[in-house]
Design goal:
The chain is an alpha+beta fold. The chain has four domains: 135 residues, ibrinogen binding protein from staphylococcus aureus domain (ibrinogen binding protein from staphylococcus aureus fold, Roll), CATH 2.30.310.10; 118 residues, no CATH class; 99 residues, no CATH class; 121 residues, no CATH class. The strands form seven sheets. It has a six-stranded antiparallel β-sheet with strand order 18-19-21-20-22-25, sandwiched between helices. Helix 4 crosses helix 5, helix 4 packs across helix 6 and helix 9 runs parallel beside helix 12. It is globular. One of its GO terms (biological process) is rescue of stalled ribosome. One of its GO terms (molecular function) is ribosomal large subunit binding.
């Protein structure tokens, strides 16, 4: 994870000088998780990439105009074209210190002010468009309300910043206070190092806005060794080095560049000089450094040999197709679901219209005016602003049953019923009763259907993660068969043709303290690990807010040492979509508090009573001896 909060601060400074004040001319989607803006500023066209890609979330300028990579228009793209295209980029802001969140505020001549929140937070990366009141118009990745959602990101909801990190600020002008709270700061993540915790891990886990790259550089500047052991003096010096690196955010004195390694090529990039990895090459801008790094990563990825690339790509297309179908169905539900209180309002309109139907006169009857007239003191027929006649019941109460305490004309005090000149009041009331009944049925059915579709969406995300982590062809084929069993692919025409059996087994490890650890690598194995092989009193682990492996520590209710707990959490983070990230949340709970999701797919569960710890999703070289003890 190289694109950290300090890098984002450097990019923000660059954008303030290059594109702030410019006008957005075009908007394209280079891929399904990215948006590119063409901005005309300072007599030049510039191209700004905003990516929420799980493995490469970032923000930076591009040298060349990006191509459209998504053939279909998405809801977010349509809203961006409406509110952001032709708008002026008024400001570039960092709303939360030490967080990877960037606000781009636009002013449109017709639609006033909108804000595009860019959150390049790895697996949780997102792009959220909101109006002037801070209400969400749409998000690239919608996050519904759920038992594990830390915040809801849905249209019409008020936007909230990501939950603050429970860590110390890396730079606030005060060293003494942090030294006092940071003596011998052995964190849980350092427990895997047994008696020799590392300085950079302590900095990573204790201070906000710190990535593994930044922590290792601070450790190198403090001790001359990025892998130095943690001591009181090393921590004090590392804390000071961290503050000096972060001081560039206040001074604007950046040194953007890349680290070039003979073996790995472009190994890293940063807004400061790197010493611990490769040869540092200074670049003209932070965007140029980031673009060089990700371009090299793309070349390495395309040139790396994947003997299963063909079959993997085919199954990936099937997963994307299934995901598109689920998203389409969710959008259809959003369009069909009545607003809260709407069925009751329509039914009340129908009841009032039916009750007063005998007193409503038509134009072809004596005494009628403007098409309708009414002889009643509690209601009247009036002309609406659009010219249509409407029945107005004065001061209807909240239950719409009889006149209430509100005065006529008071906001919310009158109930209006549009009148249809082509139908009698009784005919119109009957149609409105039918409409209210349909809306009531929809209000009952749609929430259940949405919950089912959201479970399907989570399952497809799990299959997508399984496919990316699959090591051989049988595991890839197992993902395709899981799609078939879930109903996203046609069943085999010849029933005698048997599907290839997934014979892969969960990984089995033995911790240094002798505790067996089971790791499921796909949805089927997750089901097996949790509900067939784990005991009720064993410990269950899973990465928070994302797809990943079910991990079980076979402890039988015995206390689990810190080292075993930490290593199992790392395995859960490594075998997930957040592989390679730092500060990954992993939940831990007894297996007896994990239950199958009613009507869910294999491996989908509910859990409660959990504790969350933060680990780095990587397998360090020091753990090779431990990994060699796994039981095949």
């Amino acid at each position: 994870m190289h694109f950290d909060a300090l890098t984002l601060a450097a990019v923000a400074d660059e954008l303030k000088k290059t594109v702030a004040g410019g006008r957005v001319q075009q908007i394209v989607l280079p891929d399904s998780r990215s948006v590119a803006l063409e901005i005309y500023a300072h007599r030049a066209r510039r191209y700004l990439l905003l990516s929420a890609h799980p493995q490469a979330s970032r923000v930076h300028l591009l040298e060349h105009k990006p191509r459209r990579g998504v053939p279909k228009e998405t809801p977010l793209l349509l809203l961006l074209r409406k509110y952001v295209r032709s708008a002026r980029l008024e400001s570039v802001e960092l709303p939360a210190p030490f967080e990877r969140v960037l606000f781009l505020r636009f002013h449109h001549p017709q639609h006033d002010v909108t804000t595009l929140a860019v959150e390049p937070i790895g697996q949780l990366g997102n792009l959220i468009l909101m109006n002037a009141d801070g209400r969400i118009l749409d998000a690239l990745v919608r996050v519904p309300a759920g038992e594990n959602a830390q915040r809801v990101l849905l249209p019409r909801r008020v936007y909230q910043l990501p939950p603050p990190q429970n860590r110390l600020p890396p730079y606030d002008g005060s060293v003494e206070r942090h030294e006092e709270t940071g003596r011998y700061p052995v964190d849980r993540d350092d427990a895997s190092q047994a008696q020799t915790p590392l300085l950079w891990r302590s900095l990573l886990n204790r201070f906000a806005g710190v990535s593994p790259t930044l922590a290792r550089e601070a450790a190198w500047r403090a001790t001359g060794d990025a892998g130095a052991a943690l001591t009181e003096q090393a921590f004090t010096d590392g804390r000071r080095a961290l503050g000096e690196l972060w001081s560039a955010a206040a001074t604007g004195e950046w040194t953007p560049g890349i680290a070039v390694d003979e073996q790995e090529g472009v190994a890293a990039f940063a807004p400061y000089e790197l010493h611990f990895c490769g040869e540092f090459v200074e670049m003209d801008s932070m965007s140029a450094a980031a673009a060089a790094f990700y371009a090299a990563q793309a070349r390495d990825s395309s040139s790396s040999r994947d003997e299963y690339a063909g079959v993997r790509g085919g199954v990936a297309a099937l997963v994307r197709q299934a995901q598109a179908r689920v998203e389409s169905q969710l959008r259809a539900l959003d369009a069909d679901e009545p607003a809260p209180g709407e069925p009751e309002r329509v039914r009340a309109q129908a009841e009032w219209l039916l009750a007063l139907s005998s007193q409503i006169n038509y134009a072809n009857r004596p005494g009628a005016q403007d098409g309708f007239s009414l002889q009643d003191g509690m209601a009247a027929v009036e002309s609406a602003p659009n010219g249509q006649m409407q029945l107005v019941i004065f001061a209807a109460d909240a239950d719409f049953g009889q006149p209430g305490d509100k005065k006529p004309g008071e906001e919310g005090g009158d109930l209006t019923v549009p009148l249809d000149p082509k139908r009698t009041p009784v005919e119109q009331a009957e149609r409105m009763f039918d409409r209210a009944a349909k809306m009531e049925r929809a209000a009952r059915i749609i929430p259940r259907r949405r919950a089912s579709l959201e479970a399907d969406r989570a399952y497809l995300q799990q299959l997508e993660s399984d496919l990316g982590l699959a090591l051989d062809q049988p595991e890839i084929v197992a993902v395709r068969e899981a799609l078939r069993e879930a109903g996203y692919l046609r069943q085999r025409r010849d029933r005698r043709e048997k599907a290839p059996r997934d014979r892969s087994r969960p990984l089995r490890y033995l911790s240094p303290e002798g505790f067996p650890i089971l790791v499921g690598r796909n949805a089927r194995q997750n089901e097996l690990v949790t509900f067939s092989e784990a005991g009720r009193d064993d410990l269950w682990l899973h990465v928070r807010d994302g797809p990943g492996a079910h991990v079980v520590i076979r402890c039988g209710g015995q206390p689990v040492p810190e080292l075993t707990l930490n290593v199992a959490a790392r395995l859960a983070a490594w075998h997930s979509g957040q592989r390679g990230n730092g500060g990954v949340g992993v939940v831990i709970t007894p297996r007896r508090l994990v239950t199958r999701m009613a009507g869910g797919r294999p491996g989908q569960v509910h859990y409660r009573g959990e504790e969350t710890i933060s680990v780095t999703a990587e397998l360090p070289a020091e753990s090779e001896q431990w990994l060699a003890a796994r039981d095949h």
